[in-house]
Known about the structure:
The chain is of the alpha+beta class. It has seven domains: 14-153, Immunoglobulin-like; 163-255, Immunoglobulin-like, CATH 2.60.40.10; 266-358, Immunoglobulin-like (Sandwich); 368-453, Phosphorylase Kinase, domain 1 (2-Layer Sandwich); 460-648, Orthogonal Bundle (Transferase(Phosphotransferase), domain 1); 649-686, no CATH class; 710-803, Immunoglobulin-like (Sandwich), CATH 2.60.40.10.
Amino acid sequence: MDKDGGEPKTYVSTVRLAFKRHRRNGRDSPEKAAFSPAADPRQTPVESLGPPPFTEPLRHHTDSEGSAATLPASITGSSPLSVSCLHNGDVSHLHKSSDKNGVAGATLRKGSPEDSETLRCGAESHIRETKTFCSPNNCEVMAENTEANPEKERGQRPEGPSVEFVDPPDQVEVRVGEQVQLQCPFRSASVPVACCWIFNRDKALLLGPRMSIISDDALSSLVISQACADDTGSYTVIARNRIDSAEHTVSLSVIDRPEPPASHPVVSQLSAESLVLSWTGPHYDGGRAVLGYIVEVRQKGPDAWTEVAERCKNTSYQVCSGLEPHGQYRFRVRAYNSAGVGEPSQESDCVTMPAKKNMEATEPQVEIDTQNTVKDHYDVHEKLGVGKFGQVFRLSHKESGQVCAGKFYMSRSSKERSLAHQEIELMNCLNHPKLVQCLAAYEAPSEMVMVMEYIAGGELFERIVDDNFEHTEPTSARYMQQILEGMQYVHKQSIVHLDLKPENIVCVDPTGTRIKIIDFGLASKLEPGKPLMVMHGTPEFVAPEVISYEPVGVETDMWSIGVICFILLSGESPFQGNNDAETFGLVTAARYEFDPESFEDISDQAKDFIGALLKKDRMCRLSCTEALAHPWMASFTPLNHRPTKSLKKEKMRRFLARRKWKKAGKAVLALQRMSNLSNRPDSPGSSSEEPSWSQEAEEAIRSLDKQLQSEPRFREPLRDATLPKGATAHLACRVDGYPHPDINWLQGDEPVSESSRVSVEYKDDGVCLLVLAHLEPSDSGVYVCRASNKLGSASCSAKLVVDE
């Protein structure tokens, strides 16, 4: 009875529906629904798609004051359930209960007249965001599924990708001739899944005599039989389902023996019983770093090559044994790596060893000609450059036409002549493919001239900023390798350059990538037990010990090499200050940082390489040999097809402009001009990104969508249902098809219109749902769900009977 003593009021169970119609957008995770016919005519045909109904509602209850009252109710729905019991909006003194069998209720431990107000019980389903309420008189109990509110759990249970790769390989390495297997497993929220493979983000891979691709709904595999060097590169697999796509790239290295060295050995420093051989490393190292070289010799006559006693690690070697005066020899070189020894280089020219009496080991190769002037043998042309100690002009030999470069020294004083003699003597000791070579020297009362080989390629950094020139981390590593090879030879002669900077690294020709080191005007010979201290150099590249006027050594050049590498990769100078004094302060403190933006695309190994060179303590810096063995140098080898991103050139352009205009006192104007140019969308320095895929690759990726297309097909049809008047009907089915089909509902031949009691929904997993609340006899009939896309259409139907 109610508190006024009147007859108890009867409340019927109701269902409040709040469905929102939506179309598939390719981002929501599909929800799963169970499909089964209704066992109880008072239950919905598809239980999991509706709210948790009360199979046994609350009953009227009367108890005496002071006793404990228990009000039970039975609920069905997704487990587990959490029960909310409200008594006049207050739950503090109620004991609520629920169990896995769906029994829920509330217990009032101490009954009182005030307890006979309002008690409420309800159940909520997370699948459809609906609630069911039942109440006897003014008493209601609410039971709620623990996953009732998707909004609450959105932050706790983030949705995963529709398709994602599961622990695929990142790098695979095989030897030449072996079989390659690239297996990339993935998981997908929907099927089917279509896959394709792209080589170096450029070429779509198709089946061939050496290649096969096998894909299903969980794995895509690429198999290459008898791998060859050309197979080295990046392989990107794209997996696409009807919702989304994912990609993964595998780097494949096909390891082989190195190619032959690119040049035949060149002989220098010839004496009666020894000589120095120099050569250029192989164009392709076989996919693994070259570990060293084997020098072979053959004496004229017998056709048998023998290996010299010791293997060498560099691209130059002094043969000190096994050679006899007047003997005639040819030499060749083989490179080797972890995969084996490569084929030999071309043979050297035949070398005839001189007699002992005609050779002195200390005699320079180039003697200074004091009888003639340079103009007796050469024509002098345009000026090529100006340095601290003189000017450089282009020369051409009058008889042979050979183009050379002539360095004209300022030799007004004895000190200036002494410095010129010193450089010529040092150049006579430096015979290496990575170093500019001295060809002749002239001394006259009015001038001194050193004739050098003409290097036509221009400064390396100027070449890099050209729009048609590739600039990546691997190409930068190859330039650094050449610089290190050249300086390794210099340091072995106990010579320090002391002026390494971008202007002194030049390209051999206008199109290739071979470089040479030039300008040994500040170079010095190191003598044991005699410390060398200097006060010259370029502020941005000079080492801390030079500024502090402390002894220098070969480690001083290694600091400059570190600065060059920093600029080469980022386009920024690590120690550049607003003036020379500020720059010197930064150098002395060895204070620099890797700007995140400038080094965004640079590997950690590269930064470790730079850091190992820019050490304030010169004895802690890497030597040339150690630098050549650094993992960064090993990971980016010549012509290695490892996929990398092109580096931006805007900052490099600004760096060059600043150095160029600084000499004319117009650095600020230059920077402003470069800034304006780089901000123009049509300028070469603009930051517009190049397409990441070639046209062929994009077409292959677009074809995946076509492979997934299919006409609609009902995987789970509608089921007949019989429900009482006033109940709620849930007519559900599941349809496949791509592109996503349009769904239309019909009652007989008439379209079903949405209203306050009729709603429809189409889920990502293909579930189509029609909900009719407060059923009336006129709702009886045959309901049809029709799905159609551009490939076709399909339909299914079911009969709904509403009992009065």
